[in-house]
Amino acid sequence: MLLKCAKLSQTNGATAAYGEACDGSTACTDTTTQECISDTCQCKTTYFRNHENTACEAKIAYDAACDTADSGQCTDANSECKDDGTRTTKCLCKTTHYDVSGTCTIRKNPDIACTATGQCVTNAECDVGGTDKCECNTGYTETPIDTPTMCSGVVKFASVSYMYVVPILLTMMSLLR
């Protein structure tokens, strides 16, 4: 015979406000938006504490309007509240990620397969129809060399012959003075 157990609430009416101590005998005041986490009343994972610290509010979906004063308000952990380019603040992917149907996915490193622009790391583009891989833009190099994770600007050093000619010219100029 299989017995089913149910957790019984034994709070005896005792409640704790947000940030206060709680346990099996004390419930959080607002059980809809808060729960006892590590013996403290905190916002449930689908809620965030507003910047006025007055309430736990429902997290905001990707591409929905948000308030930059609040942190941790977007449903996708890889998104943040920022300007969408039209002076409207929305939950959008962080610069290290790109949007795939409302989910923020980490950008692809150089030499990794891609299917569209905007999927690659900073200073790289997807060579659609060519290699179909992320390739560093002109003037940028894959770094580190073994397993590249980014495209870095390259400082071009003078050639060896140039490095010999300049000191000779400087010496000659100083002798002519």
TrEMBL record:
Protein name, UniProt field: EGF-like domain-containing protein
